[in-house]
Amino acid sequence: MARRAVFLDRDGTINKQVGYCGDPKQIQLLSGAAQAVRRFNELNLLAIVVTNQSAVARGLITEDQVRRVNSEVALQVARESGGRFDAFYYAPFHPTEGNDPRYRSDSDWRKPGGGMLREAAREFGLDLSTCFMVGDADIDHQAAKDAHPSILTFQVPSEYASGKADHNVHSLGHAAELIAALVA
């Protein structure tokens, strides 16, 4: 039987949005986010982060800094709730910004493309049609639908959201409640 996952945007969904974050000390979890991740674990759903990190392409931070920030997010979630992430995927690309040809790319890993979700599906044996996406931006919804049109999307409030998701929620915790009701 194929596995199911909740795909999660990082900045603005799990932790506070702080711009191009390369410093783990700047990470502050949003209220209830750690408990939501633990709830996904309890529901036997994989918790997979998919995040654009164009600051790498722009030369503002390094891939090592992205990994350290991801580790800090995971550590804070584990400390606060015992919750765990199953994987972090990040897109260090930008189609026009930056001088490094490794990152100056119109990669479909960069949301709104669904490449990160498709790669996770391949690596974890996921049935994308039964998965979920929670994010704070329209590109999160678009990436999910690009990966598979049946992925149910949940959008938390932000300046990057226009209400295009399947469900508009007030927090990651609210999304976890709705997802729990759907998989029960």
Which descriptors would you attach to this protein?
Rossmann fold; alpha/beta; globular; 14% strand; 6 strands; single chain; 6-stranded parallel beta sheet; 184 residues
Outline the fold blueprint:
Layout: E1 5-8, H1 33-42, E2 46-52, H2 63-81, E3 87-91, H3 115-124, E4 132-135, H4 138-147, E5 152-155, E6 167-168, H5 172-183
Parallel strand pairs: 1-2, 1-4, 2-3, 4-5, 5-6
Helix pairs in contact: 1-2, 1-5
pLDDT averaged over residues: 96
Q: β content, as a range?
A: 5-15%
- Main β-sheet, spatial strand arrangement: 3-2-1-4-5-6
Number of strands: 6
Report the CATH topology name: Rossmann fold
Spans with pLDDT under 50 lasting ≥5 residues?
A: none
CATH class: Alpha Beta
What composes the largest sheet?
6 strands, parallel
DSSP helix count? 5
**Structural domain tally:** 1
Shape category: globular
Describe the structure.
The protein has 184 residues and is of the alpha/beta class. It has a single domain (5-183), classed as HAD superfamily/HAD-like (Rossmann fold), CATH 3.40.50. It has 5 helices and 6 strands, in the order βαβαβαβαββα. The chain has helices spanning 33-42, 63-81, 115-124, 138-147, 172-183; strands at residues 5-8, 46-52, 87-91, 132-135, 152-155, 167-168. It has a 6-stranded parallel β-sheet with strand order 3-2-1-4-5-6, sandwiched between helices. Helix 1 packs across helix 2 (63-81) and helix 1 runs parallel beside helix 5. The longest helix has 19 residues, at 63-81. The model has no long low-confidence stretch (mean pLDDT 96).
